[in-house]
C-alpha cells in the first residue's frame, strides 16, 4: 500500500515537473534571464524560488483536492471570491494559452537549432502530437507528461556536471559577466519571487485538477513537494551550468543546448530531442486546463476549441521565442504571485482556525 502511494506521488511529481520544465526552462533561457545574469547570488535566488515552489505547490494541490476541482475555477473562487475569482480565472486561462504559444514557438526554435528544420515545420510537428495527446483522458495525459522528467534529470546531471568541471569561466570570475540589463527587473530577489509566481501560475490549474483526481490528499501533497524538489534541483544544475559558460550563454537562444554541444555534438542533438519532448509536455500541460476551463473534455466543443487553439497558436511562432519569454513570463509571474499570496493567507488562516479549535477542545476536556 505504501509503495503504491509512493509511486502515485512520484507520478504526480514527474508530471508537475514536466509541465513546469518547458521551453524556457529546459533551454536555460529562463534561468539565464531570471537568475544567472545576476552572477553568484543567483544560487540564493534559485533556492528562494525552490522553497516557494515547494510550499505553494503543495497548497495548490491540497486546495484542488478539497474542492474536487474539474478546472481552476472553483479553487480560484475559494481564494478570491466569485467576482474577483472570475477575473483571475480569465486572466489565468488566457495566460496559459499564451504560454502554450510560447512553447510552440520554442519548439520551432529547437527544431531549427538542433536539426536544421524550419521553425514552422517543427512547430507543426509538435502541434500534431499535442492534438493527439489532448484527445486522451486526464490520467493518461499525466502519465505521458511524467515519462520524460527522469530522463531530463539524468541528462542534466551529466551535461551540467561536465560544464561545471570544464568551465569557460571559473566560478570565481562569473560576476565579471553580470548583465542586469537582461533581467526582468534588475532585483535578484524580486525576480526570484516572480519566477516562483510564474512557476505556480503555469502549474496551478494542472495542480488543482491533479489534486481532485488523487485518491488521497497525502498522495498529491507529497507529489507537489517531490515535484518542487525536482524543479529546484534542475534549476540549480542549469544555473550552475549556465554560469560556467556565461559569456557564450548570452549569445545563444538555447544555453543548455550549448552546454550539451560542449560535451559532444551528438549529445547536443540528443538533448534537442529531450527539449522538444519537454516542450510537448508543456504545450499539453498548459492547453488542457485552458480547454477544460471553457469546455468539457472529450466533447465536440472541446475538440473544436482544441483544433482552433492550436491553429491560432501556430501563428505565434512568427514572433521570436526570446521576445515572447521577455513579454509573457514576468507578467504571468505577477499573476502567480497573487495566487501564491492568497494560498499562503489561506494556509495561515486554516492553521489558526485549527489551533483555536484544538484549544477549545482542550478547554472542554479540562472542564
From TrEMBL:
Keywords from the UniProt entry: Membrane, Transmembrane, Transmembrane helix
PANTHER family, A to Z: CONSERVED MEMBRANE PROTEIN, MEMBRANE PROTEIN
Presence of keyword Metal-binding: no
Aminoacyl-tRNA synthetase found in the keyword field: no
Domain of life, source organism: Bacteria
Organism whose genome encodes this protein: Jeotgalicoccus halotolerans
The name this protein goes by in its record: Putative membrane protein YkvI
Membrane-crossing residue ranges in chain numbering: 12-29, 35-56, 84-105, 117-135, 142-165, 187-211, 223-246, 266-292, 304-321, 327-349
Amino acid at each position: 500500500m505504501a509503495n503504491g502511494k509512493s509511486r502515485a506521488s512520484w507520478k504526480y511529481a514527474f508530471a508537475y515537473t514536466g509541465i513546469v520544465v518547458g521551453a524556457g526552462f529546459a533551454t536555460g533561457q529562463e534561468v539565464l534571464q531570471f537568475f544567472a545574469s545576476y552572477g553568484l547570488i543567483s544560487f540564493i535566488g534559485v533556492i528562494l524560488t525552490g522553497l516557494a515552489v515547494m510550499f505553494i505547490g503543495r497548497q495548490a494541490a491540497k486546495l484542488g483536492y478539497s474542492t474536487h476541482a474539474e478546472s481552476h475555477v472553483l479553487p480560484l473562487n475559494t481564494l478570491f471570491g466569485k467576482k474577483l475569482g472570475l477575473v483571475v480565472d480569465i486572466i489565468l486561462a488566457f495566460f496559459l494559452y499564451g504560454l502554450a504559444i510560447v512553447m510552440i514557438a520554442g519548439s520551432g526554435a529547437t527544431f531549427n537549432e538542433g536539426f536544421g528544420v524550419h521553425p514552422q515545420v517543427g512547430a507543426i510537428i509538435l502541434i500534431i502530437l499535442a492534438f493527439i495527446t489532448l484527445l486522451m483522458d486526464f490520467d493518461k495525459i499525466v502519465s505521458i507528461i511524467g515519462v520524460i522528467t527522469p530522463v531530463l534529470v539524468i541528462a542534466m546531471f551529466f551535461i551540467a556536471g561536465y560544464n561545471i568541471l570544464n568551465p569557460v569561466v571559473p566560478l570565481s570570475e562569473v560576476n565579471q559577466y553580470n548583465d542586469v540589463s537582461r533581467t526582468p527587473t534588475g532585483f535578484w530577489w524580486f525576480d526570484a519571487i516572480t519566477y516562483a509566481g510564474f512557476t505556480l501560475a503555469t502549474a496551478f490549474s494542472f495542480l488543482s485538477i491533479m489534486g481532485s483526481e488523487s485518491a488521497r490528499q497525502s498522495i498529491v501533497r507529497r507529489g507537489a513537494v517531490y515535484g518542487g524538489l525536482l524543479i529546484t534541483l534542475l534549476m540549480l544544475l542549469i544555473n550552475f551550468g549556465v554560469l560556467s559558460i556565461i559569456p557564450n550563454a548570452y549569445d545563444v537562444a538555447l544555453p543548455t543546448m550549448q552546454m550539451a554541444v560542449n560535451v559532444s555534438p551528438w549529445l547536443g542533438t540528443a538533448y534537442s530531442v529531450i527539449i522538444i519532448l519537454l516542450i510537448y509536455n508543456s504545450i499539453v500541460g498548459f492547453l488542457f486546463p485552458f480547454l477544460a476551463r471553457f469546455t468539457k473534455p472529450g466533447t465536440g466543443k472541446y475538440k473544436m476549441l482544441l483544433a482552433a487553439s492550436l491553429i491560432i497558436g501556430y501563428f505565434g511562432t512568427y514572433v521570436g521565442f526570446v521576445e515572447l519569454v521577455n513579454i509573457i513570463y514576468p507578467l504571468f509571474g505577477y499573476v502567480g504571485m497573487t495566487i501564491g499570496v492568497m494560498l499562503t493567507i489561506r494556509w495561515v488562516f486554516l492553521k489558526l482556525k485549527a489551533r483555536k479549535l484544538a484549544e477549545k477542545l482542550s478547554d472542554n476536556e479540562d472542564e
